[in-house]
Backbone:
């Protein structure tokens, strides 16, 4: 008999009259790096806390390797949580913090010491073992919190906004570091984040949460390239939205021109929007669809150049991304008229 | 006026007040302790160490020890009760906490004497507690409650409990609930979490409460006089007697000096401990 490694089944949670999570079901595989992505108030942290055992389920069940853990207190669950605030014990040293969970498991002293020093090597904080949390930098504290949860070798490691308090450079380093550790330890990671870039970089699969329910579950590539809803399209990455109307044989932009899109099986409901990513627009090129407008602003990011084009077929400026090479050959100038085009396959249609 | 002089100027009135009404009298007492007692209660201005030596005479020193014992017992009981109360208040929803604290401290704003007399009403032979026991149907002999060492301890604990509640509430309310959750998450039971995480993190509050109750109790003379009923003396009563009945001011001064020295030592120890507890935060950039 096979059953999913971790199975969240029809789980609901209400706080008074507020529904934080509504009838949510999700299966997560062993050794998967899974990201729960959502804005604040989407219920993602509540779901994580239910997995850790800090919130009772109003309804539903959670099964780990086929048996329910919903009734177990947090200290009896083979899951560990890395808290957003890190929640290190301020009166204990780094070593004592990391050893705490192993002492609770009544491991022999020698084995505890060996495992603590092993993980201190992994997080490269051996030289700070005797420090107290107060004497560590934010990045160091983050690694101690990670080590403290990881050293117990839980079946599932839950991470609540693990990189939220770090500065940008450290964050991108740690994204890859977390991925490496997950691979090395072979532990299922479930990370809660509001940072879509973080989710895209780290996760094997992403679930987008909104209003206590799952909006879409898929690989980063699926979620980014084939968003299921307008909200998902808007939430992940940058997306241009162009109002369109239904015609006999497809969709038309505001100026009446034909809007070719991927599969014209239009969803029910009116009106519609066409959506296209900035990197799919080719400034000055030709394609299935095109728009003309005036360049109103240029945003230089080093890696790329974002060209803001004010056009009659959309209310907000349309953003086109040019690579450094493209921009070198054909430098855009603010105030100049420009044409941008894109393919039908990159054009998504959503109900407005 | 330059800005850096302003704090000095603002502090001056308080400094004059403290100097005139604290430092000078204390200095006088200090000096007095080294003079000889006059034949008919006056002061003979010749230097001597006899008064200080007399403090350590077994007859008087055991009163010191007795007072320290009662103060220590009162402080310990107050810490247990006060910590429990503070813990309960800190566990309540945050919006109710100021009101609960207000109620806990409320008795403190009424007169000390009135509150102590109230215990006489409660504890005496025909008092509320005895009547309550009779009403419940207890027919047996009841121990003498008023005018005993126990009554003094009860009075001291009752009077100084609000100090402990406040000093324990402060660190308890500042605890990050996620730290407790982290302990549970790592496999600790609720009791282990309390013993290894909550309690060590709030020890400075307990220590502050203990020292306060101890210092206030060891020098107290009203409660032993009213609830102890002259059955025994605490050091405060002995000092009181030297100045007002025995007319031996130099000896009273010597007793006071030793008492003040003990209190100062404890308060300084407490201050150092509190500083160390919060000290790490200043040196974060290590």
Residues:
């Amino acid at each position: 008999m096979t059953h999913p490694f971790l199975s969240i089944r029809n789980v609901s949670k209400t706080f008074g009259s507020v529904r934080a999570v509504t009838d949510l079901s999700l299966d997560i595989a062993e050794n998967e790096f899974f990201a729960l992505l959502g804005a604040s108030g989407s219920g993602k942290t509540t779901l994580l806390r239910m997995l850790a055992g800090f919130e009772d389920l109003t309804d539903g069940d959670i099964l780990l390797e086929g048996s329910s853990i919903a009734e177990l207190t947090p200290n009896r669950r083979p899951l560990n949580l890395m808290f957003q605030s890190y929640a290190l014990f301020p009166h204990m040293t780094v070593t004592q913090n990391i050893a705490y969970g192993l002492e609770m498991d009544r491991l022999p002293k020698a084995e505890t010491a060996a495992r603590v020093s092993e993980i201190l090597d992994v997080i490269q904080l051996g030289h700070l073992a005797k420090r107290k949390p107060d004497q560590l930098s934010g990045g160091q504290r983050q690694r101690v919190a990670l080590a403290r949860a990881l050293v117990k070798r839980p079946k599932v490691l839950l991470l609540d906004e693990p990189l939220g308090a770090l500065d940008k450079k450290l964050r991108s380093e740690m994204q890859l570091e977390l991925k490496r550790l997950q691979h090395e330890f072979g532990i299922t990671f479930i990370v809660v984040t509001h940072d879509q870039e973080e989710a895209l970089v780290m996760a094997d699969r992403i679930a987008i949460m909104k209003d206590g329910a799952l909006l879409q579950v898929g690989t980063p590539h699926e979620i980014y390239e084939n968003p299921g809803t307008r909200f998902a399209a808007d939430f992940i990455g940058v997306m241009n939205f162009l109002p369109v109307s239904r015609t006999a044989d497809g969709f038309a932009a505001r100026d009446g021109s034909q809007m070719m899109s991927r599969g014209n099986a239009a969803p029910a409901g009116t009106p519609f929007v066409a959506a296209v990513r900035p990197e799919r627009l080719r400034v000055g090129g030709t394609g299935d669809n095109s728009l003309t407008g005036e360049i109103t602003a240029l945003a230089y990011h080093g890696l790329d150049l974002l060209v803001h084009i004010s056009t009659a077929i959309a209310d907000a400026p349309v953003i086109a991304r040019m690579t450094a090479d493209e921009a070198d050959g054909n430098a855009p100038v603010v105030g100049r008229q420009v044409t941008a085009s894109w393919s039908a396959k990159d054009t998504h249609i959503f109900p407005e | 006026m330059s800005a850096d002089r302003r704090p000095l100027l603002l502090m001056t009135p308080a400094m004059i007040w403290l100097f005139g009404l604290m430092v000078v009298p204390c200095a006088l007492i200090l000096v007095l302790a080294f003079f000889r007692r006059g034949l008919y209660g006056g002061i003979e201005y010749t230097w001597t160490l006899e008064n200080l030596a007399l403090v350590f005479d077994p007859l008087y020193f055991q009163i010191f020890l007795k007072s320290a014992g009662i103060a220590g017992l009162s402080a310990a009981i107050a810490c247990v009760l006060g910590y429990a109360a503070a813990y309960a208040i800190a566990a309540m929803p945050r919006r109710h906490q100021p009101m609960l604290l207000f109620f806990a401290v409320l008795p403190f704003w009424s007169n000390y004497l009135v509150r102590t007399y109230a215990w006489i009403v409660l504890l005496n032979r025909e008092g509320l507690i005895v009547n309550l026991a009779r009403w419940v149907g207890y027919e047996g002999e009841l121990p003498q409650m008023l005018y005993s060492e126990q009554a003094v301890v009860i009075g001291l604990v009752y009077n100084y409990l609000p100090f402990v509640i406040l000093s324990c509430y402060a660190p308890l309310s500042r605890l990050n609930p996620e730290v407790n959750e982290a302990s549970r998450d790592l496999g600790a039971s609720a009791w282990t979490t309390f013993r290894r995480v909550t309690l060590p993190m709030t020890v400075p509050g307990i220590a502050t409460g203990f020292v306060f109750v101890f210092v206030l109790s060891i020098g107290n003379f009203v409660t032993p006089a009213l609830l102890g009923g002259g059955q025994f003396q605490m050091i405060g009563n002995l000092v009181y007697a030297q100045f007002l009945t025995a007319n031996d001011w130099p000896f009273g001064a010597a007793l006071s000096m030793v008492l003040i020295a003990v209190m100062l030592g404890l308060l300084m120890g407490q201050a150092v401990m509190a500083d160390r507890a919060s000290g790490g935060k200043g040196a974060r950039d290590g």
Chain B is about 75% helix and 5% strand. Residues 280-286 of chain B have pLDDT under 50 and may be disordered. Chain B touches chain A at residues 176, 178-179, 181-189, 192, 196-197, 200-201, 280-281, 283-284, 286 (CB under 8 Å). Residues 58-276 of chain B form a domain with the MetI-like fold fold (CATH 1.10.3720.10).
